[in-house]
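Z., the sequence and structure:
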Amino acid sequence: MPRTMRVGETSIEIPTADRPADVARVAARRRRPLTLKLDRRQKQPRGLYERQNSTIGLATRETELHGGGRASARWTDAGKNRSKSVSSIHLECTCNVGREHAMPSASLLHWTNDRSPRLAQIDGQCQMTLAAAPPNPHLIDENLRGYVLALSAHFQGFCRDLYTEASQILVSRVKRPALAAIFQAQFTAHRKLDHSNPNLENLKADFKRFGFTIDLANADPANPARLAHLKSLNEWRNLAAHQGTPTATVGPLTHVLIGAWHTSCDGLVNSLDGIMYNQLRRILRRAPW
């Protein structure tokens, strides 16, 4: 029987609350230690507790988590229960995980399997141009500018794909087709990712429609530097698209610099995917993908 635990103002439904692995995974998804109190009156679950001197003993379980890290659950009886019926059990859960979400979205898989290989081909073309003898400065500049445009476009495409995927998952919960079409239209109306740069302000404005504000800066310790790279990428994207001249603040365009931007985009893609997984899971109370 599924059981619901309440932690503060949040209800967590566990498929089988009597299993330590399930309790540990709950702690892992919330990325912080939990203290849960489960009130129930039923027979002692088989294999969960050890009986010693007619009392309920101690149980501890550690479980491996996807993406690295471990979670553990430990509990004891709340009172001196000397029968097989337990009235109150105190559970203490701790966790140590890096990534919360267990599966990548279809948008992230598309980034990994299609967008990144395309960008790698452009990167290789730039390397060949730089290695040519004698070098052709004009061709080098055009290739680097094209690389900037392609990188910005594919990052924007991923963000739009993830937004669309998340909105379709939520809309699929609406039973009436006519009402679902209205909701989907509201998600796509005046979407900034359709016509504006994929900067942090536009990402926040669009994803705020899901009822929360994305906090990329605090999602990963490396993200503040990545966001600075994203800002520089967007500045150079505008220069390349409009055949602008580099200013002192923007600086010269180099292949090494674009490679650093590419790496930062990879990190931001994974962070954004993780944020959406966890937020949608909170809303749906189930894994979104």
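Residues 1-99 have pLDDT under 50 and may be disordered. The longest strand covers residues 85-97.

Let me know what you think.
H.
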